[in-house]
């Protein structure tokens, strides 16, 4: 793929939930190295926009173009099964995204989020922040140029977890990836803002 080509485009996108039009006329072009902070009040449609960008659901108007391939969508909830171990969970998540699932990849990804010594622990025995780390670890095994769509990824993380995530985000952007991130937190990395509350 041409490195200067867009990885993800939203063209005049509109989203309806029930009878409510959440947003319309949203345009966004994400290229290699782009970080976009998706802002908006509670209920403005950030999660809905990320889902449309990932190809889940149909827009009321407009289109999503994904020249960079299928994005990795990391939802607001962790969607992990209590009875699986940390390593089994990550192995499963990598499979869902069609990523390499070998033991070395799993161990390296867990290590990035300080989970190497918890690989045999069951999810049901972890704290919320530790579960968030397991969910995030899949990003460490993602292909370099894949667009990442992240819904409140910092939620539940302590300072060390936040630092690990921000380091991974910066690395992904340096390697030609792109990130669209719904967040209520103050920007910790330089990027553009897409504000769904803007008139
Ligand atoms: N399955 C659904 N059916 C109907 N309406 C829905 C559904 N899911 C969400 N909505 C509505 O769509 C609107 C936008 O929800 P969404 O989760 O996209 O907002 P958000 O900006 O991510 O909010 P938050 O900041 O609270 O996470 C809300 O008013 C919500 O009630």
Automatic annotation (TrEMBL):
Keyword RNA-binding: no
Keywords attached to this entry: ATP-binding, Cell membrane, Cytochrome c-type biogenesis, Membrane, Nucleotide-binding, Translocase, Transport
GO molecular function: ATP binding; ATP hydrolysis activity; transmembrane transporter activity
Gene Ontology BP term (one): cytochrome complex assembly
Residue span(s) of domain ABC transporter: 8-196
Pfam families in UniProt: ABC_tran
Origin: domain of life: Bacteria
UniProt-recorded name of the protein: Heme ABC exporter ATP-binding protein CcmA
């Amino acid at each position: 793929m041409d490195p200067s080509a867009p990885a993800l485009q939203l063209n005049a996108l509109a989203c309806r939930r029930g009878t409510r039009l959440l947003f319309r006329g949203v345009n966004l072009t994400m290229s290699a190295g782009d970080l976009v902070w998706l802002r908006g009040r509670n209920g403005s449609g950030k999660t809905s926009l990320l889902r449309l960008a990932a190809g889940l659901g149909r827009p009321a108007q407009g289109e999503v173009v994904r020249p960079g391939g299928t994005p990795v969508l990391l939802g607001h909830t962790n969607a992990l099964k209590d009875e699986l171990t940390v390593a089994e969970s990550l192995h499963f998540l990598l499979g869902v995204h069609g990523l390499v699932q070998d033991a070395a990849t799993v161990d390296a990804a867990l290590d990035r989020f300080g989970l190497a010594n918890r690989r045999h622990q069951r999810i049901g025995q972890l704290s919320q922040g530790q579960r968030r780390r397991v969910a995030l670890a899949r990003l460490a095994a993602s292909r370099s140029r894949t667009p990442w769509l992240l819904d409140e990824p910092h939620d539940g993380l302590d300072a060390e977890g936040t630092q690990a995530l921000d380091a991974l985000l910066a690395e992904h952007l340096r390697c030609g990836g792109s990130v669209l991130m719904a967040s209520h937190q103050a920007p910790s990395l330089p990027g553009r803002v897409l504000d769904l509350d803007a008139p």
